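TA notes. Do not distribute before section.
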Amino acid sequence: MTETESFESRWLGVLTVVLTLGGWTIVPILIKEFTADVDGWTSNGWRYGFAALLWLPLLVWRRLRKTGKPGLFRAAMTPGLINAAAQVCFTMSFYQIDPGLVAFGLRAQIVAVTLGAAIMFPSERAVIRTLGFLVGLALLMIGTLTTIGLSGKFGEKAGTLGVVLAMMAGVGFAGYALAVRKCMTGYGSMASFAAISQYTAGAMIVLMLILGEGSGAGALEMELPRFGLFLLSAVIGIAAGHVLYYVSIEKLGVTVSSGVIQLQPFTVAALSFFWFKERLSVAQWLFGALAVVGAITMIVVQHRVKQRLARAERGERDAAQDFADLPPDMIAAMVATHRPDETVFSSGSHEEDTEPEAAASKP
């Protein structure tokens, strides 16, 4: 790759990660905005159903070409259903509390991923035992719990329920991420994302038909421009957002991309202030910053330790990237190639046999 191509690749990565952060900032705001129009079951059913429809052509194309590792839908079932359960908690939390507090509550995801990875994947234990990683984890937990505890709504019935739902969503998304890593190896991130979205959307639509007001028909009572914005939120958060995120990871790497996404609680809270007049105290902002610093510390330490282990095990070969911390409202499948002699994973595509760090000089 020439110097000019490298420069353009970096700037494309910067652009896509900024657009990803922007998209995943506006989506929680829009979900909250539409709580006045539809119930949570209806919101999930329409939004995920529409997003899954957008991803269906990729699966049809894959099927017609008869490419890729077989058994995609069988492998995607468990992650898809876990993600569906997490998505229910995530959306319902907006009916109780404001978006900024939801975003901070979701940081419980990182703690749950850490504990789950230590249990399920021996290769993670070397990372978790690192002092820097433990310090980052402590900062994350202290910052998150204090930010939530300082909320004036925490302690009230609705506020407490909303926080609990947001944290349960974080734990659920952590379980989803671990299931993706366990079940989706070798299928490629785009194909995995598309297949998982079908299961999640199917569950959301069934729940909407059973539990939604008028079986979801209430969404059709919105004026056409508002209904279009409602569906657009699915495109931004569930479809386009993940394509942009994959590109940013390919151009910048997991560590930088996921580090930028850690700013999401701040961007959501800031936008929520102007949109819904949600106010966080100075202390909440400071402890929220502490939580973000802790999360970024964990990501950086994880990356460095895995690079060191990979060099020790495989000479000078690049360390394969692990899945990134998954932001909210996602069916992201941060998975990729896994060779029999490797114990860590990358975010590339098995179908194209590329790894993200190698593809740029190497969506």
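Switch to the second chain here.
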Amino acid sequence: MYQYDMAIIGSGAGLMVMEAALAKGMKCALIEKSKIGGTCLTKGCIPSKMLVYPADMIRETQTTSRIGLEFCEPVIDWETIAKRMWQQINFSDKIKANLISTENLTVFGGTGEFTSPGTMKVKYDDGTYSEEFTAERFIVAAGARSFIPQINGLDETGFITSETFFGEKFPDKPWESLAIIGGGAIGVEFAHIFSAFGTRVTLVETKPHIISTEEEEISDFVEKRFKENDVEIITGGRIVSVNKSGDKKILLVENFKGRKTVSVDEIFISSGIQSNGDLLQLDHAKIETDSRGWIVTNNYLESSQKNIWALGDINGKFQFRHKANYEAGILINNLFGDGEKKQANYGMVPWAIFTWPQVAHVGLTEKEATERGYKVFIGRNFYSDVAGGIAMGFRHGAGDNGFVKIIAAEDKKIIGVHIVGPNAAILVQPFVYLMISGYQCKCTQIKEKLDKSEHQYNTKEVCPQIGTYLPIADSMVIHPSLSELTAWAIDNIDWN
């Protein structure tokens, strides 16, 4: 039986850990059932942004009359837009070619299946298996896939998901009409994309509000903007059945207002994700999972088996690529570093929803803070309250006047920041650095040390990371956003 030092299942953030292992001279196996690069590169945040940005530009041209500019109706060159998108996705092929020729690395194209806590085999697409192999360490970064709800007639009628959209079902041109089932981040992003490209979009969400992870006032704000752009929103909705009639797909939708039929060219399912853990035969390795199939890990990313770690979507903690990258950094330090082991801190996980208008978030919502017993203090500021926003044409009382909502605790510590409007993803990032620097500095310990000593300490003596780049280095930076441009510059500092 062939022996590897490390086997990595999944080629998203798992590649970062693999590269560190290879740099240490380890013999590694990489197992990937799909394209190299993971969800983000091949069927997620990167290709979708190649569609979001043109959609943003279209919406921008529709609002410039408020600053005295008028543009003609945009001409959409779908072929060029698609070509740019596929160029990003197909970067996967270059990565794969490089990996195949890498010393000490074996690349398996299939699904890894545990046969014991220390052994695995790979199931290929044709149903055959590789030889069983063993590894000293397993890194499970196998991700997640779209959750398909049980809807009468859905399979027979046909549908798309983000996986098939960025694959064999990518359209030759924007559909005339589209139903999106699910009003979370993916659903509202695609609703923005296709409504901007001229598609008649109907968005169906089972909960009372779309993007329910956000402040209710922000959800309402985005919903109103969608309706102004002729997107039909059905909240509290349930799909009773789906069927085909000629070239159309017919949905029977029910909510508190009653039942209605929706006729569309295509159905996009974005009703959440499910763990890929069920594909890996985790029970053979006695790996603990929760009720939804996510691998249970501690803050060191350790599973219930001492030789198996899990990171990224599959551990069920905040499914964002920047979170997975952060966890990869934790693992690299703990597995290969000489210093103290680090724990993952999920208290300052930022994210953005690239819809229109853009939404960004870090920390607690007002409701969450109150439920945790905080006495909360709220600060708001609207785009129209600052010169930059006024220059962009935002006005007091206007329906599109976005805002920032800051939630602070009694000790003046910021515990939540929520933004809706242009550049929200960039505007929220400095608060992430600020919040994590407070976590690093452990101000109560500083105060105790100062109180017990007659020595006149300056803050730098007690908390040496203040004023350094460490809060940036230890923070998650929203991906993909232009905040990465500035944050990652610290990696290029030449200390020689």
